[in-house]
Structure formats: structure tokens, C-alpha cells
Design goal:
It is built from twelve helices and twelve strands. Helix 1 packs across helix 2. It has 391 residues and is of the alpha/beta class. The termini are far apart. The radius of gyration is 27 Å and the shape is elongated.
Length: 391
């Protein structure tokens, strides 16, 4: 039996021939842009009726290449956002983008292009993954072309970015908004970010109110914008509390698995700390290290030392320890990024917009007053302004 004959897809030329108007008129009506208001209402209705009868559907890729709007937003991730150890961290971002895109009447297209060695050489090396192992190579410019142009604009998400590609998007004047603060040397980017500076400063202020003056800050290994913002908040919080920063109390935690009760005991005994601030990772390593420490009685939090997290612990569930922290408004950030992107699309020039969203304080149960047995730690001589211990 012969297979059924496939019907040819209707085109704007077919609609023009049926309605007796020019193909340019059909294009104006179908696009629905501002210029379509110049078409007589009777003609517009006839064109739309013919398009419906003929089963015409617009080629959104072709429309985008011609500079039109197809009400299609992209979501590009610089790394996989679905592995088990990152599922809970990224889920609110994805949910926020999806819900706001639907609310605004836009469809959503997920991009996850994998680049070749040639693509990597073209744009330069990407930043290392947080674990120190190479991340899966992803590239916007697979084969040298910007694949995001299928969409009207794009929301970008991810920690291990290709900054050369961000610069290239700016040079192309392609509208995009990053979820999280990102910078490049040669351009201003649009982003919606958590206000890490204010949130970290507020945690330092709360610890200072409880009598803590020896507060150790464990920062992430990479020098990313979120890490720099947290450090700025830490320093600002100390300054506002009248505490001179001690550079010995700013440490890099290369691997969260190295965070152990033995290390905490060393910091308490050798540095005289009474509180600990930790920048979370986006995987389970920190959660596991915290659970191990909480399971011992050698150092009790907060009875012996206060501990707070500068963000949400990954994969946290109510059954786990309720660590004092601030929480990132992830779904809100993602939804705001969609709104900013649509505002950019409505502008003739895509002037960058940069917004910060407040974080929420979660009191938890892991900070408290300086232990009475160590109250003299608060009176420990402050270091000199250059960070050197006082004589």
C-alpha cells in the first residue's frame, strides 16, 4: 500500500494568491507588528481567515532571522542544571523562568548546546567548575553562529560561564539577562542578582550584636562575583560594627569536604574565633560536611561556636539541621529576569539593566551569644588597620 501523500506546507505566498493581496501585506498581517495597523480591517480579517483555513503556521526561526518577534524566550544554561547534586538548587530558577514566561504570554525554549574543541579554542578557555574538574563543554556559538537567535531574547543561568561569549552577545546587540551578577571587561551586562552584600553584612551585624568579634569567613575558591559580593558584605558589616578586619580570619575553603570538626577546633584554639561564616557550594559536599560536624559533641553549635551560612545549603530538607542563614529568592530572581528581558525587547536600544533582590534572613538554630567561658574572646586585642596582629 502506497504511503499517503504528504501535504505541502502553506506559505504566505499561497495566502496572498487566495486573498488577492500582495505577499508583503500578508507578512504585515501575520507578523502583528505596529505596521500591521496600516492594513484595512477587512483585508486583515480576510488574510487571517485564509491563513486559518489553509493551516498556515509561522516559521519562527525564519521570522527571528528577519528581525521579527516570535514571542519565544530562550533559557541557556552554562552547565547541566538537572544532575542529582544540583537539582534542588536550580529548580526554583527554572520554575521562576517558566512561570513568568507563561504569565507574559511567551513560549520557552531550553538551550543546552555542546561545543566542540574548535568552538572552545575560538572563544577561549571557560572558567573551571567549582569542584575543580572540567565542566561539560557548552557553547552558545556552536559552529561559529549564535544559536540563541532563534528566540527573541534569552535568560542566561550558570556559574561556569564563558565571558568571551557574553561579550560577543553584547557586540551583536542580542538581548539577554543573566540570573546573577556577571561582569565582563568590555561591556555592561543586564542581570538580576541576589543582594549578597546587604545579606552578608546583616548576618555580621547580628553576630556582632550577640557579642562576637572574632568571626571567621570561609569563602569559595573561585573569585566569582557572588564571592566578591559576600566578602564586601563581610568587611562592610565588620566596619559598621566597629571591628577592624583581621585578614587571618578570611580563609578559602578549597573543598567543602575539608571542613571538619578538627579544623573548627584549630580555629577556635589558634585564632580565638567564636563564630564562623561559610559560603555554600552548589552541590552536596558542604551539606554532608555540616551533617558530620553536627553529629559530634566535640564542638556544639552554637553553645561552643556560632555558625551561619551565606546562602542556602544545597539539597536542604526540613529533616536536616536548620542552620542560621540567608535564603536566596531564586524563583523571584528568575521571574524578575524574564520581566527585565521583555522590557529590553520593547526598547529600541538594549541599555543594560542591573537589579538586586533582597535575601531573606532565616534565624535557624546555629548562632547565639558568645559562650560565657570564652567571653574574653570578644576583648581580644584588635589587629592593626593593615591586618597585622596588635602587639
Amino acid at each position: 500500500m502506497a504511503p499517503p501523500e504528504r501535504r505541502r506546507r502553506s506559505t504566505q505566498r499561497d495566502i496572498a494568491q487566495r486573498t488577492g493581496v500582495s505577499q508583503a501585506t500578508v507578512s504585515l498581517v501575520i507578523s502583528g507588528g505596529a505596521a500591521s495597523t496600516q492594513i484595512a480591517e477587512s483585508t486583515r480579517r480576510a488574510v487571517l481567515a485564509a491563513a486559518d483555513e489553509m493551516g498556515y503556521t509561522a516559521n519562527v526561526a525564519a521570522r527571528s532571522l528577519k528581525g521579527g518577534r516570535n514571542r519565544l524566550l530562550g533559557l541557556y544554561t552554562f552547565e547541566s542544571v538537572f544532575p542529582t547534586d544540583q537539582r534542588d538548587f536550580y529548580y526554583p530558577f527554572l520554575l521562576g523562568v517558566e512561570e513568568e514566561a507563561a504569565r507574559q504570554g511567551y513560549d520557552l525554549l531550553l538551550f543546552s548546546s555542546t561545543g566542540t574543541d574548535r568552538d572552545a579554542a575560538r572563544v577561549g578557555p571557560r572558567e573551571p567548575a567549582e569542584s575543580g574538574t572540567p565542566a561539560a563543554e557548552r557553547s552558545i556559538y556552536v559552529g561559529g553562529s549564535n544559536r540563541l537567535k532563534i528566540a527573541d531574547g534569552c535568560v542566561l543561568l550558570g556559574r561556569n560561564v564563558r565571558r568571551e561569549e557574553l561579550s560577543a552577545l553584547v557586540r551583536e546587540d542580542f538581548p539577554f539577562v543573566f540570573v546573577g551578577r556577571r561582569e565582563v571587561d568590555d561591556a555592561e551586562l543586564s542581570y538580576v542578582a541576589a543582594d549578597y552584600v546587604a545579606a552578608t553584612g546583616a548576618l555580621v551585624a547580628e553576630l556582632a550584636r550577640l557579642g562576637h568579634r572574632r568571626i571567621l569567613y570561609l569563602r569559595a575558591l573561585e573569585d566569582s562575583e557572588p564571592t566578591r559580593d559576600r566578602e564586601e558584605g563581610y568587611r562592610r558589616g565588620l566596619a559598621e560594627a566597629g571591628i577592624v578586619p583581621d585578614e587571618a580570619l578570611i580563609r578559602t575553603l578549597a573543598d567543602p569536604a575539608d571542613l571538619s570538626i578538627e579544623r573548627v577546633e584549630e580555629w577556635i584554639g589558634g585564632l580565638g574565633i567564636t563564630a564562623l561564616l561559610i559560603e555554600p557550594t552548589e552541590d552536596d559536599r558542604l551539606t554532608e560536611a555540616l551533617a558530620t560536624m553536627a553529629g559530634t559533641r566535640r564542638v556544639r553549635f552554637p553553645a561552643d561556636c556560632s555558625l551561619a551560612l551565606l546562602g542556602d545549603p544545597p539539597s536542604w530538607t526540613p529533616e536536616l539541621r536548620d542552620w542560621t542563614r540567608f535564603s536566596l529568592p531564586r524563583a523571584q530572581m528568575a521571574g524578575q529576569a524574564v520581566r527585565v528581558l521583555i522590557e529590553l525587547l520593547d526598547q529600541e536600544t538594549h541599555e543594560p539593566r542591573q537589579l538586586t533582590v533582597p535575601c531573606a534572613y532565616v534565624p535557624g538554630d546555629s548562632i547565639g551569644p558568645v559562650p560565657a567561658s570564652r567571653a574574653d574572646a570578644g576583648a581580644r586585642p584588635e589587629p592593626e588597620p593593615d591586618g597585622r596582629p596588635a602587639a
